[in-house]
Design goal:
Order of helices and strands of chain A: EEEEEEEEEE
Number of strands of chain A: 10
Number of helices of chain A: 0
Distance between the termini of chain A: 39 Å
Strand content of chain B: over 45%
Oligomer: heterodimer
Helix content of chain A: under 10%
Number of strands of chain B: 11
Radius of gyration of chain A: 14 Å
Largest sheet of chain A: 5 strands, antiparallel
Order of helices and strands of chain B: EEEEEEEEEEE
Chain lengths: 115, 114
């Protein structure tokens, strides 16, 4: 299974601070990079996603920065709030699945935002 | 509500038993998946299935088998349960085999094997 490498494994941030989670990929065929947010006892939910034709996408306090040449992308959470405390997963998908492709997820980052 | 729903939410069973987890989606998606999430939160794909093709992660033991009566349902059957099968199992769906619009996940089934 092709890998998406996610870091850090855990992150503690003070309320109002910036949370940054990084992911790196290898396969240049990936053309869709989503982030998922998972709260305890719930399934992951799509938070924000980016395609490689743009370098940044912002939705409210959440921003994805994408570096195609470095094959890296990151999630930035501005003005982090205690309600953002969750596990975050990056993924890398391709539309050219050919029926034999299983998109990989990163190993997850546990974010704790202290009040 | 449009969603992916799984039952049961909790399942406690003894080693050696056979159990099933049901999954249904009313999103009109035609591809469904099963993921296993371990205690370290790692999400491991187990199966990807649409009405044309079953893709099996080669690391999944053959005690695990997906069963799909129609494209809105993908159940997971597990034979001869082992302690190491204890985990949270998530069903998910997407539109077609193209996953470029992300997955919709169910809320999970916590399986405990004792």
């Amino acid at each position: 299974q092709q890998q998406v490498k996610q870091s850090p494994q855990s992150l503690i941030v003070q309320k109002g601070g910036i949370s940054i989670i990084n992911c790196a990929y290898e396969n240049t065929a990936f053309d869709y990079f989503p982030w998922y947010q998972q709260f305890p006892g719930k399934g992951p939910a799509l938070l924000i996603a980016i395609r490689p034709d743009v370098s940044e996408k912002k939705e409210g306090r959440f921003t994805i920065s994408f570096n195609k040449s470095a094959k890296q992308f990151s999630l930035h959470i501005m003005d982090s709030q205690p309600g953002d405390s969750a596990t975050y997963f990056c993924a890398a998908n391709t539309g050219a699945s050919g029926g034999s492709y299983i998109p990989p997820f990163g190993r997850g980052t546990s974010l704790i935002v202290h009040p | 509500d449009t969603a992916v729903s799984q039952t049961p939410k909790y399942l406690v069973t003894q080693m050696g038993n056979d159990k099933s987890i049901k999954c249904e989606q009313n999103l009109g998606h035609d591809t469904m998946y099963w993921y296993k999430q371990d205690s370290k939160k790692f999400l491991k794909i187990m199966f990807s299935y649409n009405n044309k093709e079953l893709i099996i992660n080669e690391t999944v033991p053959n005690r695990f088998s997906p069963k799909s009566p129609d494209k809105a349902h993908l159940n997971l059957h597990i034979n001869s349960l082992e302690l190491g099968d204890s985990a949270v199992y998530f069903c998910a769906s997407s539109q077609g085999t193209e996953t470029s619009h992300g997955y919709t996940f169910g809320s999970g089934t916590r399986l405990t094997v004792v």
